[in-house]
Predict the structure.
Amino acid sequence: MAEKKVMLTQEGYDNLVKKLENFKSVRRMEIADRLKAAIALGDLSENSEYTDAKNEQAFLEGEIVALENQIRNSVIIHDEGGDIVALGSTVKIRFPEGEEETYTIVGSTEADPDEGRISDESPLGTALIGQSAGSVVQVHAPNNKILEYTILEIK
């Protein structure tokens, strides 16, 4: 079974690489130091510090494998700045209440709505993809509500 491609902006890719490097160099060394200190305490069978450090080590190694897979399967998004919303586009929209917000459409791995980065797989992201400025898109919200958003600008 082929692994799912991970859609990333160049910034998101660079952040994953940086995080992986930190895990492999800094975090691994920190945990190794904790393990050495715990082993120096003696009896490992009742040594909670040793057990905690081993658990943290296992978790970190799992995170490293996951990051390596994401990086290996990544596809860098290059927004061409066109007239149609696509991955990597920055879109200014008007909410039903009249409020205006700007979002960048990114892959699910680097989505962070609080930072204005919404996933192409989110309801709003899915509705925006393929649309142009001036379009009104509908998003199904909880309680069977349909919200309409107007695309004001695509960057």
Q: What stands out?
A: The CA atoms of residues 33 and 53 lie 9 Å apart. The chain has three helices and seven strands. The helical segments are 10-40, 48-72, 123-128.
